[in-house]
Design goal:
The chain is mainly alpha-helical. Helix content is 69%, strand content 3%. It is elongated, with a radius of gyration of 22 Å. The protein starts with a helix and ends with a strand.
Length: 192
């Protein structure tokens, strides 16, 4: 084989590692999005309703990544998928300031993590799109569509994140002061 044939060939071994890492990230993203939607379905139904289409899309994106991997003859590394599931579950164990119930901070942090995941996914699509210029096993149009969808997902998650800032950090008066209960500067309830 002469050098001109090998200059534009994709290194399938390295690409396999890269795509399996993205697949592990996709597993984490789908799990997190589903968990957040379920957790917020009663507490904040509007947030859960806004997240459902994104959950569906990122699930489709993960399936699309698997199809791309098959088209490139890149084997799925099951241990990376298992590691992704474990990492997502371990992420739920972080300290959140609450022992028994879900922290009001949880949706904010989860939205930020989902947005970061979408940014990572978009970077993966951009990498594949660039490789598609020389690797004809990759469908440029499909990758363009995946990139556009990732941008819409990112914009939606950012809009939801900005909405969540107010809900998380700027509490409204719920009427506790009507009963004479107030809080001191440290947040400790006191009676007047």
């Amino acid at each position: 084989m002469d050098d001109s044939d090998s200059t534009n060939q994709t290194d399938t071994d390295l690409l396999g590692v890269y795509l399996n890492d993205h697949l592990a990230g996709a597993v984490i993203g789908v799990d997190r999005a589903r968990m957040l939607t379920k957790a917020e379905s009663e507490r904040d139904p509007a947030l859960a309703d806004a997240l459902r289409p994104i959950v569906d899309e990122i699930t489709e994106d993960r399936a699309g990544l698997l199809e791309i991997m098959r088209g490139l003859d890149v084997p799925v590394r099951r241990h990376k998928i298992a590691a992704g599931h474990l990492a997502e579950r371990a992420g739920r164990l972080k300290a959140n300031g609450r022992i028994v119930r879900r922290s009001p901070l949880a949706p904010m942090v989860e939205l930020e993590l989902l947005r970061l995941g979408v940014e990572g996914k978009a970077a993966g699509w951009r990498t594949l799109r660039r490789l598609a210029d020389t690797d004809h096993r990759l469908d440029r149009g499909r990758l363009d569509n995946l990139l556009e969808r990732a941008q819409r997902q990112r914009d939606t998650l950012e809009r939801l994140r900005l909405r969540q800032i107010t809900q998380t950090f700027q509490h409204t008066d719920t009427g506790d002061t009507a009963t004479g209960d107030t809080a001191d500067a440290g947040g400790t309830p006191t009676s007047s």
